[in-house]
Amino acid sequence: MPIRPTKDQLAAAQDKVIPDVIAPGLDVLFCGINPGLYSGALGLHFARPGNRFWPALHAGGFTPRLLDPSEQHELLDLRLGITNVVARTTARADELTDDELREGGKTLVEKVLHAQPRWLAVLGITAYRTAFGEKKAKVGPQDRVIGGTGVWVLPNPSGLNAHWTPAGLASEFAALRARVVT
């Protein structure tokens, strides 16, 4: 596991961009809202201890073992990838404006059309609703298709999203996994 960033490193991470983990033809492209400062300081997606993305990914059946954020590029071998609706790092997702989320949704569509994953899994219902203008969207598969890519919304795995338990997250990830393997 990488060393924990210092307060100065966290402060310096504001507005950084973490490169996507993406390749053509993925089964699932997971899409966070935007990276936090901890992730920005380390240059790794979902890096903050307590973020439940990596455990949910494993518990949902996507990875053969629990991966550490430093192993994020191993996802490509599993036909999985990571991007974000908004690329810039912030201390909290609520620092993003609706305009940033809508613009990020347009950029995300371009990425999906280029990489053509089978599924886009957006991690966060509120961000999805804003980015795509779908105010009534619910967690799960969406009617929206981008090119040939299906769209699925998963709960935000941040530890701040406490009403989703680890078991609930695992169940939602597993539902997507079941669709991927059929």
UniProtKB/TrEMBL annotation:
<dbReference type="Pfam" id="PF03167">
    <property type="entry name" value="UDG"/>
</dbReference>
<keyword id="KW-0378">Hydrolase</keyword>
<dbReference type="GO" id="GO:0006285">
    <property type="term" value="P:base-excision repair, AP site formation"/>
</dbReference>
<keyword id="KW-0227">DNA damage</keyword>
<dbReference type="InterPro" id="IPR015637">
    <property type="entry name" value="MUG/TDG"/>
</dbReference>
<keyword id="KW-0326">Glycosidase</keyword>
<dbReference type="GO" id="GO:0008263">
    <property type="term" value="F:pyrimidine-specific mismatch base pair DNA N-glycosylase activity"/>
</dbReference>
<dbReference type="GO" id="GO:0004844">
    <property type="term" value="F:uracil DNA N-glycosylase activity"/>
</dbReference>
<protein>
    <submittedName>
        <fullName>G/U mismatch-specific DNA glycosylase</fullName>
        <ecNumber>3.2.2.28</ecNumber>
    </submittedName>
</protein>
<dbReference type="InterPro" id="IPR005122">
    <property type="entry name" value="Uracil-DNA_glycosylase-like"/>
</dbReference>
<dbReference type="InterPro" id="IPR036895">
    <property type="entry name" value="Uracil-DNA_glycosylase-like_sf"/>
</dbReference>
<keyword id="KW-0234">DNA repair</keyword>
<feature type="domain" description="Uracil-DNA glycosylase-like">
    <location>
        <begin position="19"/>
        <end position="177"/>
    </location>
</feature>
